[in-house]
């Protein structure tokens, strides 16, 4: 099947970087990273499309999990002064999808390919895999662990998150 017919670009799998002086820094989400990259690198040697599909599924799950872990970690480190008391406003201001959209917009686009693959395979009534963007799943993995590898070593791009009000709070303010 042609949507399985590609060779993933290579990713530098090192999970440890040299830090200041003699220190080393270890990647966050290391279990997800190891799982994703092991599957990623075995794709080219997979014997048939079924094997390739199961490899792609692992890449999708593990990359998505690392992505969510990273967004949650970033959210935990956003200074909130004062704390946003309404949960809906908080979600609109610093929800995980808001953080991803502002700091890693392409990651958000590529994540859709992983979501689609996972949802498709999780439903037994779904048949056929021609419509799945397998390469998109691998691009998602590459984008997170290669192009944004620094983020997993805690070099987070800076951004501000202006308060966004939810619908009901907006309505209250408008009174
Ligand atoms: Zn609100």
Question: What is the element layout, followed by pairings?
Answer:
Blueprint: E1 16-18, E2 24-26, H1 30-42, H2 49-76, H3 87-94, H4 96-103, H5 105-122, H6 134-147, H7 149-152, H8 167-174
Antiparallel strand pairs: 1-2
Bound molecules: zinc ion.
In words, what does this structure look like?
By secondary structure, the protein is mostly helical. The chain has one domain. It is built from eight helices and two strands. Strands 1-2 form a two-stranded antiparallel sheet. A hairpin with a 5-residue loop joins strand 1 and strand 2. The longest helix has 28 residues. The radius of gyration is 19 Å and the shape is flat. The N and C termini lie far apart (59 Å). The mean pLDDT is 93. The site of zinc ion has 7 residues, from helix 3 and helix 8.
Question: How is the biggest beta sheet arranged?
Answer: 2 strands, antiparallel
Bound molecules: zinc ion
* Major beta sheet, strand line-up: 1-2
Element order, helices and strands? Answer: EEHHHHHHHH
The structural domain count equals: 1
How far apart the termini lie comes to 59 Å
Percent range of helical residues: 55-70%
- Indicate the radius of gyration in whole angstroms: 19 Å
Average pLDDT, to the nearest integer? 93
Number of DSSP helical runs: 8
Q: What fraction of residues sit in β-strands? A: under 5%
Low-pLDDT segments: none
Q: What would the principal axes of the Cα set say about the shape?
A: flat
Number of strands: 2
């Amino acid at each position: 099947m042609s949507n399985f017919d590609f060779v993933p670009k290579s990713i530098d799998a090192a999970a440890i970087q040299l830090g200041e002086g003699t220190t080393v820094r270890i990647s966050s989400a290391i279990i997800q990273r190891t799982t994703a990259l092991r599957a990623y690198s075995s794709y080219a040697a997979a014997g048939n499309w079924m094997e390739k599909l199961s490899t792609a599924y692992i890449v999708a799950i593990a990359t998505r999990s690392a992505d969510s872990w990273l967004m949650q970690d970033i959210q935990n480190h956003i200074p909130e002064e004062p704390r946003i008391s309404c949960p809906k406003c908080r979600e609109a201001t610093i929800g995980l999808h808001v953080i991803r959209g502002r700091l890693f917009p392409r990651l958000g686009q590529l994540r859709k390919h992983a979501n689609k693959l996972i949802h498709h395979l999780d439903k037994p009534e779904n048949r056929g895999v021609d419509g799945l963007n397998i390469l998109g799943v691998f691009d998602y993995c590459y984008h997170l662990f290669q192009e944004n590898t620094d983020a997993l070593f805690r070099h987070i791009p800076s951004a501000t998150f202006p308060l966004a009000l939810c619908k009901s709070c907006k309505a209250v303010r408008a009174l």
